[in-house]
Amino acid sequence: MTVRMPSTAELADIATSLHMTLLPDQVQDYHALIGGFLADYQMIDDLPDEVPQLRYPRAPGHRPEGEETCGNAWYWKAMVQGAPTGKLHGRTIAIKDNINVAGVPMMNGSATLEGFVPSFDATVVTRTLDAGATILGKATCEQFCLSGGSHTSDPAPVHNPRRSGYSAGGSSSGSAALVAAGEVDMALGTDQGGSVRIPASFCGVVGMKPTHGLVPYTGLMPIEATVDHCGPITRTVRDNALLLEVIAGPDGMDARQRGAPAEDYSAALDRGVRGLRIGLVEEGFALPNMMPQVAEKVRAAARTLERLGAAVTPLSVPDHSLATTLWTPIGCEGLLAQMMLGNGGGHNSIGLQDVALIDRHRSWRDQADALSASLKLCMMVGEYGRRAFGGRYHAKAQNIRLRVKRSYERLFDAYDLLLMPTLPIVASKMPAADASVAEIVARALEMIGNTAAYDVTGNPAMSLPCGTVDGLPVGLMLVARDHGESIIYQAAAAYEQAVDWEAL
């Protein structure tokens, strides 16, 4: 394309928007100077973009209808066959629809992005294919991934496979629902406030949010780089460990990563829990909307781990609640800056950017009325924080985050794991199509009281099922020090082998 020069009137308007006062002759002076800068823009536009080469052939696929959607959990069906051998050979996988699969449509749960087709595979997609997996398609997700409920996805809500009309959880709603329904063996999800662990808990599957930066986010549409995580959703702990082994480790293109290699997580699965020190986090059981039946199921799971040889001790962690509070300015102002005003791109960091996504997503401004209520609310909070306070609360929250992070590092000197309910509730009934804004937002955010804290601290956290209430799954959450995924898998496998959670 041709990089167009602004008119003098446009330049004057730009100066005004930047709180500058320019005289007419000054506008002319700046107009004469800006052309040299835009010549560099034109040179960059004339160069080919740098994107990974496509290595596995695929057909465009199709958008399923009716029963083929599996309760609206499938957004797009498209098979991509991976390598003929590897750790995931013979396994089928669904990819959350904020993750690039080249040649396959991606709308990130929002009609405002419908029609966008990525040109390159995300690193995690390439890694699953290199390991022999077969991708079956894209799993529906909530609109721009900003809901813990499954009622904000376009064009229709995702139903819990265990009870139609009830939430599958969000924002990786389709990923968890497809695994729970047996449509695929595994799925990839993303987690910024609980979006892997929430649907895993509601649907009765295993969801891991790894240490921040362990899994590359290259080729995924972000919310906010400091809370972006990608992780595996599976039916078993063993499969979860296997998938994390495949997708973890630096790719050299994601500034979130700090060089941590993947580990042999499967090696931890048969170690048992004898001698592990587990802290039962009191604040995690004290959320205002905590269902007593959920709390008791999780306490019973803690007693099972104790019988298996772990030392389980009640523990107060005041910074748990503080970490959740920090999410508000970090998440709201951050998502406004990066996902919306930044059109899904990132400034001030090195990494592979999806230029075509930025080009396509910028049109959200023409369709803002179609955005979900939960996204609109967070955007308005973020904009108010930016306008009224100049970003000071985002900055201060990031500063306090460092102190909270250090407090957790000290805590894990005394404990191997923390344990609490993943969510205070089981899957709730989805709001009606004509529900009020207040109800839509409540169903989107009511469950994040425990999960969001560990997106802020970046610690690895897993949800695994530990029983049912009225036939709906309950999740317990295990949290470890940074890069303590193996300890989580060690305890989760021991618990999984010891119980039939669906009978509890």
Number of E-state strands = 13
Principal-axes geometry comes out as: globular
Largest sheet: 11 strands, mixed
Assigned CATH superfamily of the largest domain: Amidase signature (AS) domain
Strand order of the largest sheet: 1-3-2-6-8-7-12-13-11-9-10
Estimate what percentage of residues fall within beta strands. Answer: 5-15%
End-to-end CA span: 62 Å
Question: Which structural category do the helix and sheet elements fall into?
Answer: alpha/beta
Instruction: Encode the helix/strand succession as letters.
Output: HHEEHEEEHEHEEHEHEHHHHEHHEEH
State the domain count. 2
CATH architecture of the largest domain: Alpha-Beta Complex
> What share of residues is helical?
25-40%
- How much is the radius of gyration in Å? 23 Å
Outline the low-pLDDT stretches. Answer: none
Average per-residue pLDDT, rounded, comes to: 97
At the first level of CATH, what is the class of the largest domain? Alpha Beta
Number of helical runs? 14
CATH fold call of the largest domain: Amidase signature (AS) enzymes
Description:
The chain folds into two domains: 8-46, no CATH class; 66-503, Amidase signature (AS) enzymes (Alpha-Beta Complex). The strands form two sheets. It has an eleven-stranded mixed β-sheet with strand order 1-3-2-6-8-7-12-13-11-9-10, with helices on both faces. The chain has a two-stranded antiparallel ribbon with strand order 4-5. The relative contact order is 0.13. The termini are far apart. By secondary structure, the protein is an alpha/beta fold. It has 14 helices and 13 strands. Helix 8 (318-341) packs across helix 10 and helix 8 crosses helix 11.
